[in-house]
Design brief:
213 residues; mainly beta; Lipocalin; eight-stranded antiparallel β-barrel; 50% strand
Length: 213
C-alpha cells in the first residue's frame, strides 16, 4: 500500500525544467543637471484695463536658475523635476522698448509685483511624473507638483516634451497661473487705465546633462 501511495504522489508532482523565469532588466534612473547657459526660463505678462489694447505685453527672462531632472524611459514613475529661479535676475526681452521703459517695467515687476527683496526665489518640485513615448528618444510628460511663489505654495501641473540624446536631456514646456492665487499685486500704469492681467505664462526650455556617477 505504501508503494502505491508513493507512486501516486510521484505521478502527481509537477514537472520542472530547471530554468528560472526570465528577469526583466530595468534601466537605472539617470540624474540630469540643468545647464543654465544653454537653457531658457521666461514669464510673459499680458496687458488689460481700459487702454490694455494699446499697451504692450512683456516677456521677462530669468538669468539665474538651477534644477535637476531624474528620468529613465522605462521607469517614469521614478522620474522627478525640480527648479529654483532667482527673482532678482530678471531681464526684459522686449526689443522695441527704450532703456528707460525697460528699467521701469523691471522695477515695477521686481518691487511692486514679485517683491524680490522679500521673496528672492521661485521654486518648483514635482510630486508625480507620467510619461508616454512619442517616438525614438522622445516622450510626452505630464508633471504635477508644488510651486512656491511670492511666499505661497500651491499645487500646479503642466505638460512637457522630453528628448534624450546620449548623456543629455532637453525638456520643453509651459504653464499658466493667476497672480491673485499667490497674493501678487498686479502692476498698473496711466492712472489704472492699463493693468497687467491676472494670468501669467511661464515657459521653459531646459537643457540638462547627466550627472557623473
Amino acid at each position: 500500500m505504501l508503494g502505491c501511495l508513493l507512486a501516486t504522489t510521484l505521478r502527481a508532482a509537477p514537472a520542472t525544467t530547471g530554468r528560472a523565469a526570465p528577469v526583466v532588466q530595468t534601466a537605472p534612473v539617470v540624474q540630469y543637471v540643468i545647464v543654465a547657459d544653454s537653457s531658457a526660463m521666461v514669464m510673459q505678462t499680458y496687458s488689460g484695463g481700459l487702454l490694455g489694447s494699446l499697451a504692450q505685453d512683456y516677456t521677462i527672462a530669468f538669468r539665474r536658475f538651477s534644477g535637476a531632472i531624474a528620468f529613465a524611459p522605462n521607469a517614469a514613475d521614478s522620474a522627478s523635476f525640480s527648479l529654483v529661479m532667482s527673482t532678482d535676475s530678471l531681464v526684459v526681452l522686449n526689443r522695441d522698448l527704450s532703456g528707460f521703459e525697460r528699467r521701469e517695467v523691471l522695477r515695477k515687476t521686481k518691487e511692486d509685483a514679485l517683491e524680490t527683496s522679500r521673496y528672492p526665489e521661485i521654486a518648483f518640485r514635482s510630486t508625480r511624473v507620467a510619461a508616454t513615448s512619442s517616438g525614438p528618444g522622445r516622450y510626452d510628460v505630464a508633471v504635477s507638483g508644488m510651486l512656491t511663489l511670492h511666499g505661497v505654495t500651491r499645487p500646479t501641473a503642466f505638460r512637457a516634451q522630453i528628448t534624450l540624446a546620449g548623456p543629455t536631456l532637453r525638456a520643453r514646456g509651459e504653464f499658466r497661473l493667476k497672480q491673485s492665487d499667490y497674493g501678487i499685486r498686479r502692476v498698473m500704469a496711466l492712472g489704472n487705465l492699463v493693468r497687467v492681467k491676472d494670468e501669467v505664462r511661464f515657459a521653459f526650455d531646459a537643457f540638462a546633462r547627466a550627472r557623473p556617477r
